[in-house]
Amino acid sequence: MIWYKIKGTVDVNAKMVDLKDFLHDLLKGKKNLGFEFRDGAIIVRGESVRLDDQKIKSRTIKGIVRDKTTGDPLPGATIKIKGTSLGTATNMEGKFELTVVDNFIALEISFVGYETVEVTVGKREYLDVLLKTESFEY
Question: Least packed by Cβ within 10 Å: which of 18, 44, 95, 138?
Answer without folding.
Answer: 138
